[in-house]
Specification:
The chain is of the alpha+beta class. It has three domains: about 90 residues, Double Stranded RNA Binding Domain; about 110 residues, Tyrosine recombinase, N-terminal domain (DNA polymerase, domain 1); about 210 residues, Intergrase catalytic core (hpI Integrase, Chain A, Orthogonal Bundle), CATH 1.10.443. The protein contains 18 helices and eight strands. The strands form two sheets. Strands 1-2-3-4-5 form a five-stranded mixed β-sheet, covered by helices on one side. It has a three-stranded antiparallel β-sheet with strand order 6-7-8. β1, α1 and β2 form a beta-alpha-beta unit. α4 runs antiparallel to α5. The chain is elongated, with a radius of gyration of 32 Å.
C-alpha cells in the first residue's frame, strides 16, 4: 500500500490535471518524475534519479513556467545522462554558477570602453544600468532573464522617463547580446524591441513628450551678445565660440589646437579667413562622422586672443589644464540671467516655454535665424552636423557646402553684432 500523501494515478499525468490539482501530495508521472503540491498550493516538479550509484532528487522548476511536456523532456534527458555515467545534478549546479547580469555589465563595459565617444558617455551608460536595471536584474543569471524581467525594469519608467527607458532597453539588449556571444546564455534576446517588447510597450514616440532646450529669442540676440562680451573667463570665451560656430558644448569643450587650420599667417587676413577651418574628428561627433566648421573673422580673432597652456592640448581649458565642464558654460548663461532679473528685467527667455535660455538652445536660435533668412534647409542642417535625408541621399550628397556655409556663418556673426547684409535691412520711413 502506498505511503500517505503519495498519489499514483492509473495512467500518466495530464496537462489539465497539473493545472487544476490543489490537494497536497506527490503525483507521479514516469522516469522518476513527480509533481509535489505543498499545503499552501505551491507546486514543483521533482525527479528521483540514481546518479553514479547514489539516489537523489532533482528540482525541475514549477508549472506553469515549466509545463508537463517540458518537465518530461528534462527528466528523460537527465535519465539518459545518468545512464551514460554523467552527473545532471553537477551540471545544474554549474549552470547556477553562471554569469550574473551585474558581472556581465562589468565585462561588457570593460571591452567596449574604447568605443564610447567620451567619459561622460561612459558614465551615462553605467549610471542608467546601475540606477534602473541592476536593482532588478543584477543578481540574476543572464541565462535566466526573461521578457517579464525586462518589463519589471522598464514599465515603471516607460511613460514618465521615456527617453531614458528607451536608451536603457537598448543598453540591456547590448549587454545580453554580448552575453550570448560569450556563451553565457542562449536563445532570443529578451530585450529586443521589434516583434518582442514592441508588442507589450507603447511606442516611445506615442508617449514621449518632446521638451526642447530653451532657446534665445531672435529679438534678444544682439542685446545678449553685448552682455556676453562683457563677461570674462575661459567659459565665457567658449560660449562665444560656441555661438559663432553653432556647435555643441561637448564639441567646443573638447576642441584641441591640432583640429584647427587658421590659414597661413603670411597671407592677408581676408585670404586666411577664406581658408580657416575647424575639423572635428568623427570620434568626437554625435553622429560619428567628421565635421568641418568654416571659421569667420570673429571666430579667428577669438582664437588668436586666447592664452595657451603648454601642458594642455585643449583650446578652452579648465584651471587644472583639463577640459572645461559642461556646467561651467551653462553657469555663464545662468549668471547672465540672474543679472537681468536683479536689474528688474525678465531676462533671456525662450519665447515658447518662457524658460531661461541655455547653451544648447543657441543651436535652435541659429536654426530659426537661418530659416527666416531663407538659407537652404540642407545647408543649415549640415552646419548643425545633422544627418540629411535617407542613407541613399547621404551616399549621393557628399558635399558639405563648406564655402557656402562660410558665407552663412559670416552673416550669422553679423547678426550677432546687430549688423545685417544690405538686402536684409529694413529702412523705416519718417
Amino acid at each position: 500500500m502506498p505511503r500517505k500523501n503519495i498519489r499514483r494515478p492509473e495512467k500518466a499525468l495530464s496537462a489539465r490535471f497539473v493545472e487544476t490539482v490543489t490537494e497536497p501530495g506527490k503525483y507521479f508521472d514516469g522516469q522518476g518524475l513527480f509533481l509535489r503540491v505543498a499545503k499552501n498550493g505551491a507546486r514543483q516538479w521533482v525527479q528521483r534519479i540514481t546518479i553514479r550509484g547514489k539516489r537523489c532528487e532533482l528540482g525541475l522548476g514549477s508549472p506553469p513556467a515549466v509545463p508537463l511536456a517540458t518537465a518530461r523532456k528534462l527528466a528523460l534527458e537527465n535519465r539518459g545522462t545518468a545512464m551514460l555515467g554523467g552527473d545532471p545534478l553537477a551540471a545544474k549546479r554549474k549552470a547556477r554558477e553562471g554569469k550574473t547580469f551585474a558581472a556581465a555589465v562589468d565585462e561588457y563595459l570593460a571591452s567596449k570602453l574604447s568605443e564610447f565617444r567620451n567619459e561622460k558617455h561612459q558614465k551615462q551608460w553605467r549610471s542608467t544600468l546601475d540606477n534602473y536595471a541592476t536593482p532588478v536584474l543584477g543578481r540574476m543569471l543572464v541565462s535566466e532573464i526573461t521578457v517579464q524581467d525586462l518589463l519589471r525594469v522598464l514599465q515603471p519608467i516607460w511613460n514618465e522617463k521615456t527617453e531614458t527607458a528607451s536608451r536603457l532597453r537598448g543598453r540591456i539588449e547590448n549587454v545580453l547580446s554580448w552575453a550570448t556571444v560569450a556563451g553565457h546564455r542562449t536563445g532570443d534576446n529578451p530585450a529586443r524591441w521589434k516583434g518582442n517588447l514592441s508588442e507589450m510597450l507603447p511606442k516611445p514616440t506615442k508617449v514621449k513628450t518632446v521638451r526642447h532646450q530653451p532657446a534665445l529669442a531672435l529679438s534678444d540676440v544682439a542685446r545678449w551678445w553685448v552682455d556676453l562680451g562683457e563677461r570674462e573667463g575661459m567659459a565665457a570665451e567658449a560660449l562665444r565660440f560656441l555661438t559663432l560656430t553653432a556647435a555643441r558644448s561637448g564639441e567646443v569643450r573638447g576642441a584641441t589646437w591640432d583640429e584647427f587650420d587658421l590659414g597661413d599667417a603670411a597671407t592677408s587676413a581676408t585670404t586666411a579667413t577664406r581658408r580657416a577651418v575647424w575639423t572635428i574628428p568623427a570620434s568626437r561627433m554625435k553622429n560619428g562622422r567628421e565635421h568641418r566648421v568654416p571659421l569667420t573673422t570673429e571666430a579667428i580673432e577669438l582664437l588668436h586672443a586666447l592664452p595657451r597652456l603648454n601642458a594642455s592640448p585643449y583650446v578652452f581649458f579648465a584651471p587644472n589644464g583639463g577640459m572645461l565642464s559642461d556646467m561651467s558654460i551653462s553657469a555663464v548663461m545662468r549668471r547672465m540671467q540672474e543679472a537681468e532679473l536683479k536689474a528688474g528685467r525678465e531676462g533671456y527667455l525662450d519665447p515658447a516655454s518662457k524658460r531661461p535660455a541655455v547653451p544648447h538652445g543657441l543651436r535652435s536660435t541659429f536654426r530659426q535665424w537661418a530659416a527666416e533668412r531663407g538659407y537652404p534647409r540642407d545647408m543649415a542642417e549640415i552646419a548643425l552636423a545633422h544627418f540629411i535625408g535617407s542613407e541613399v541621399e547621404r551616399a549621393y550628397q557628399r558635399s558639405d557646402m563648406l564655402d557656402r556655409r562660410r558665407e552663412m556663418m559670416a552673416d550669422w556673426a553679423g547678426f550677432l553684432h546687430a549688423k545685417e547684409k544690405d538686402d536684409n535691412k529694413v529702412v523705416r520711413l519718417p
